[in-house]
Design brief:
- The chain is an alpha+beta fold.
- The protein contains six helices and eight strands, in the order βαββααββαββααβ.
- It has an eight-stranded antiparallel barrel.
- A hairpin with a 3-residue loop joins strand 6 and strand 7.
- The radius of gyration is 17 Å and the shape is globular.
Length: about 200
C-alpha cells in the first residue's frame, strides 16, 4: 500500500473546504483505498490530507489522468503545499484499514533517520512504540511507512484528542529513552489533526 501525506497552509478556508468535497469522485479510481484529513490542532490554518492507494502504479496512473481535474477546484486556496509518498511497512496495532469514520484525531510523526540506525529505528518502532500505542485504550489503528532517504511516517488514529493526550503525558518520555530515539533521529516533526468528516472519501 502507498500512503500520500499532503500538508498545506490554507489562505481561503471556505474555498478550500468546498474544493475538498470535490475529491468525493475518488472511489471510482482503480486502486484507490481511502482518503481523509482535517485541521492541525497545533498550527492554525494548516491542513493535512492522507490518501491511500493499493500500489505505486495505480497512484501514478491516477496522477497522469484525473488528478489535475480534481485538484483544480482548490487552486489558489492554499500555499506551501508539501506532498510525500510512503510505502506501507507494517501496522501499528493490528489490521490497519484506511477508514476515518470512527476516529476524531490523527497523530502524524515524520522522521529522518541516520543511515546506520535505520534497522534499529524500525525494530524499536516494532518492539517499543507499537506495543505501547496498541495498549492505549483510545488508539484505534495505525501504520509505519517508509520513503527513500531514510524517511519514515508513523500515522495513528485515535478515538479522541483527550485519549491521545493521556498516552502522550504518561508514556512518551519514558519510551523515547528506551528506544534510544536521540541516537537514531536526525529530524522529527509531527502534528495532531482534528479530522473533518466531510473530507473523508
Amino acid at each position: 500500500m502507498l500512503v500520500k501525506w499532503i500538508r498545506c497552509t490554507v489562505v481561503d478556508r471556505r474555498g478550500f473546504e468546498r474544493g475538498q468535497r470535490k475529491w468525493a469522485g475518488l472511489p471510482g479510481e482503480p486502486g484507490f483505498r481511502g482518503q481523509g484529513g482535517g485541521w492541525s490542532r497545533l498550527r492554525p490554518g494548516v491542513a493535512h490530507v492522507f490518501s491511500f492507494w493499493e500500489s505505486r502504479p495505480f497512484y501514478d496512473s491516477f496522477m497522469a489522468r484525473s488528478h489535475a481535474r480534481l485538484a483544480a477546484a482548490q487552486a489558489g486556496t492554499f500555499k506551501d503545499a508539501q506532498a510525500k509518498l510512503f510505502d506501507y511497512r507494517f501496522d501499528v496495532k493490528t489490521g490497519f484499514e484506511p477508514r476515518f469514520t470512527d476516529a476524531d484525531v490523527v497523530r502524524v510523526a515524520h522522521s529522518r533517520i541516520r543511515e546506520d540506525r535505520v534497522e534499529h529505528y524500525a525494530l524499536m518502532q516494532e518492539k517499543v512504540w507499537n506495543p505501547a500505542m496498541a495498549g492505549s485504550p483510545g488508539m484505534l489503528r495505525g501504520l509505519f511507512g517508509e520513503a527513500p532517504g531514510n524517511e519514515f511516517l508513523v500515522l495513528s488514529m485515535w478515538k479522541s484528542a483527550a485519549e491521545h493526550g493521556k498516552y502522550r503525558t504518561e508514556r512518551v518520555e519514558r519510551l523515547a529513552l528506551r528506544a534510544q530515539i536521540a541516537a537514531d533521529v536526525v529530524a522529527l516533526t509531527g502534528d495532531v489533526v482534528d479530522l473533518e468528516a466531510a473530507w473523508t472519501v
